[in-house]
C-alpha cells in the first residue's frame, strides 16, 4: 500500500514548482496548480498543505475586497488541512493552520478545538516531512522546526482571540468616524473588558482617546494623551509581543515629549522574537501592509526605525538651535557625573567607571599594558609603560617572549627575520615593528571603554533638552499618526461591507474564558 518512491519524488517536484511560481509572483497560476495537485493527490499531506497555505494567503489578500471569494478560499484551505491531519495527526503547524482557516470562517468553537488538540500533542511530527520551504535553506534541526511550529500555533491562537472581536471593533470605529469620537467613549472600554485576550480590543480605548485629542488645546491634548498612554502601558504589560501596541505606545511617548522612553520602546520592539501577527492587532482594521506574516513584521520594523530616525533629526535640529554655552554643557561631561548616572542604572558600566577613576587618580594616566599571558600570576597585572612591560617579559617569560610575539603577529615576518639573506639592520627594524604591534595589542585605554558610556549619557541629555525646549516645534499628534489613520480610512469602510454577513455572537463568552486560560 505504501506509495511508490518515484511517485513521491515526482509529487514533491511538482509541488515545489507550484511554490516557485508563487514566489515569482505568478500567484493565480501557483494557486490553481496547487489546487489541482491537492485534488488528484488527496491523501498526500504535502500537496494538501501547500494548497491550504496558498489558499489562506489568497484569503488574506481578498478578505476586505471580495469577502465571498475569500470565504471560498478559506473553506478550501480548511478542508485541505483537515484531510492532511487525518494522515499526519501529530503536526502542530497543520493544526495551527487549520485553526486559522476555521477562524477565518468564523467557526470559533471548532478552531478552538483544533488549538487545544495541537497544544496537547506530546511528540510533535517534524513539519519538514510534509511541508515545503523547510530544511535545505534554513539548515534547522527537527527540534528548532518544532519550536517554530509552536510559535506559529501561539500566533494562530492570538489571531483567533482578535478575530472574535473584529466585527465589534469595526462597529466602534464606524461610530467614531460617523458620529465622532466624543459620542463613542463608553463602547471601547466595554469592548476591552469583554475581550481581555485581544490586544486590539485593549488598544481601542486609547485609539479613541487619540481621536478625541485632535484639534483640542495643547493642555487638553496632553491630558488626553497621558490617559491613552496609561491604557497602552497596561496593554503593553499583557501583550509584550505585539508590535502594534509597541508602535502605538512609542508614538504616544514621542507626542508627550518623552523621547528617551520612545526610543527605548522602539529598541525593545525591534528585538522581539516571533512577534504576534501585526494584522491581528491593527487599528484601523487593515492598516498594516504586507500579504504574508514576514512582510507585515518587516513593515512594522521599518516604522520603528523611522521613529528612531525622526528622533535623531529632531535632535539635530535642536542642536543647531542651541547656543554654544548649552552645547558645551552637553559636550563636556565630568566623569563623576557619569559615575553617578550609571550607578543608578547599570552595574557593569558603574564598575568600569569606578575602576578607571581609581586608576587615573593613582597613576595620572588612563592607559596601561597587560602581559600576554593573562593567566596565573600575571592576571590583572597592569604595566604603566612599555619599558616595564618589556622588563616583565624578559624577567618572567624569557623563553616565551619570542613565541608570544610570533603567535600574536604575522609568522611570515618572523621567518624573514631569521633568513640568511636578511641584513642585521633589516632584522632589527622588523623586530622593532613587531614590538610596536605587540605593544599596540597589549595596551588598554580606559577612555575607550568610557567613551561609549559618555555618548549614551549625552544622547540621553540631548533628548531631555529637546523635550524641555519649547522653541522647537515638537511632534504633533497629526504629524505622528497621520499616515496610519489615512491608510485606515478606506479599509474601515471596506470592513463595513463584510460586517453584516458574519455576526458571530453565540457562545462567545464560553470561548473567551477558555482562551484566557490558554494564554496565561
Ligand atoms: Zn607575565
From TrEMBL:
It comes from the Eukaryota. Residues 319-408 form the DUF629 domain. Residues 508-520 have a biased composition (Polar residues). It holds the Pfam family DUF629. SUPFAM superfamilies: TPR-like. PANTHER family: CARBOXYL-TERMINAL HYDROLASE-LIKE PROTEIN, PUTATIVE (DUF627 AND DUF629)-RELATED, OS11G0598900 PROTEIN. Residues 497-507 have a biased composition (Basic and acidic residues). Transmembrane segments: none annotated. This is DUF629 domain-containing protein. The lineage of its organism: Eukaryota, Viridiplantae, Streptophyta, Embryophyta, Tracheophyta. Residues 491-520 are annotated as: Disordered.
Amino acid at each position: 500500500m505504501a506509495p511508490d518512491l518515484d511517485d513521491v519524488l515526482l509529487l514533491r517536484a511538482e509541488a515545489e514548482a507550484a511554490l516557485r511560481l508563487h514566489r515569482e509572483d505568478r500567484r493565480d497560476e501557483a494557486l490553481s496548480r496547487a489546487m489541482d495537485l491537492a485534488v488528484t493527490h488527496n491523501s498526500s499531506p504535502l500537496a494538501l498543505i501547500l494548497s491550504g497555505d496558498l489558499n489562506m494567503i489568497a484569503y488574506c489578500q481578498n478578505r476586505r475586497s471580495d469577502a465571498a471569494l475569500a470565504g471560498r478560499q478559506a473553506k478550501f484551505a480548511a478542508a485541505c488541512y483537515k484531510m492532511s491531519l487525518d494522515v499526519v495527526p501529530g503536526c502542530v503547524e497543520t493544526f495551527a493552520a487549520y485553526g486559522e482557516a476555521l477562524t477565518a470562517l468564523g467557526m470559533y468553537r471548532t478552531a478552538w478545538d483544533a488549538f487545544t488538540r495541537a497544544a496537547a500533542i506530546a511528540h510533535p511530527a517534524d513539519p519538514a516531512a510534509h511541508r515545503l520551504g523547510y530544511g535545505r535553506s534554513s539548515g534547522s534541526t527537527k527540534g528548532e522546526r518544532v519550536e517554530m511550529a509552536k510559535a506559529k500555533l501561539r500566533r494562530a491562537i492570538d489571531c483567533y482571540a482578535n478575530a472574535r472581536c473584529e466585527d465589534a471593533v469595526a462597529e466602534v470605529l464606524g461610530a467614531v468616524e460617523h458620529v465622532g469620537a466624543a459620542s463613542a467613549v463608553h463602547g471601547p472600554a466595554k469592548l476591552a473588558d469583554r475581550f481581555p485576550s485581544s490586544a486590539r480590543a485593549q488598544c481601542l480605548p486609547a485609539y479613541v482617546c487619540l481621536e478625541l485629542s485632535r484639534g483640542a488645546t495643547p493642555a487638553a491634548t496632553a491630558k488626553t494623551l497621558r490617559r491613552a498612554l496609561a491604557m497602552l502601558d497596561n496593554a503593553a504589560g499583557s501583550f509584550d509581543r505585539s508590535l502594534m501596541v509597541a508602535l502605538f505606545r512609542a508614538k504616544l511617548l514621542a507626542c508627550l515629549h518623552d523621547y528617551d522612553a520612545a526610543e527605548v520602546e522602539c529598541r525593545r520592539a525591534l528585538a522581539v522574537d516571533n512577534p504576534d501577527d501585526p494584522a491581528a492587532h491593527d487599528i484601523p482594521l487593515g492598516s498594516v501592509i504586507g500579504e504574508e506574516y514576514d512582510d507585515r513584521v518587516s513593515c512594522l520594523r521599518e516604522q520603528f526605525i523611522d521613529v528612531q530616525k525622526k528622533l535623531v533629526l529632531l535632535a539635530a535640529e535642536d542642536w543647531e538651535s542651541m547656543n554654544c554655552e548649552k552645547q558645551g554643557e552637553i559636550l563636556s561631561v565630568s566623569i563623576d557625573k557619569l559615575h553617578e548616572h550609571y550607578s543608578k542604572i547599570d552595574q557593569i558600566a558603574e564598575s568600569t567607571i569606578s575602576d578607571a577613576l581609581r586608576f587615573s587618580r593613582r597613576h595620572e594616566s588612563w592607559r596601561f599594558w597587560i602581559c600576554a599571558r593573562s593567566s596565573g600570576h600575571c592576571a590583572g597585572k597592569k604595566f604603566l609603560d612599555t619599558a616595564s612591560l618589556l622588563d616583565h617579559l624578559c624577567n618572567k617569560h624569557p623563553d616565551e617572549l619570542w613565541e608570544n610575539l610570533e603567535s600574536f603577529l604575522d609568522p611570515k615576518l618572523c621567518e624573514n627575520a631569521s633568513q640568511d639573506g636578511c641584513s642585521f639592520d633589516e632584522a632589527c627594524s622588523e623586530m622593532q615593528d613587531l614590538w610596536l604591534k605587540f605593544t599596540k595589542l597589549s595596551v588598554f585605554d580606559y577612555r575607550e571603554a568610557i567613551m561609549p558610556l559618555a555618548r549614551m549619557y549625552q544622547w540621553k541629555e540631548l533628548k531631555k533638552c529637546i523635550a524641555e525646549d519649547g522653541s522647537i516645534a515638537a511632534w504633533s499628534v497629526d504629524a505622528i499618526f497621520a499616515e496610519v489613520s489615512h491608510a485606515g480610512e478606506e479599509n474601515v469602510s471596506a470592513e463595513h461591507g463584510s460586517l453584516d454577513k458574519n455576526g458571530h455572537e453565540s457562545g462567545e463568552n464560553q470561548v473567551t474564558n477558555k482562551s484566557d486560560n490558554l494564554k496565561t
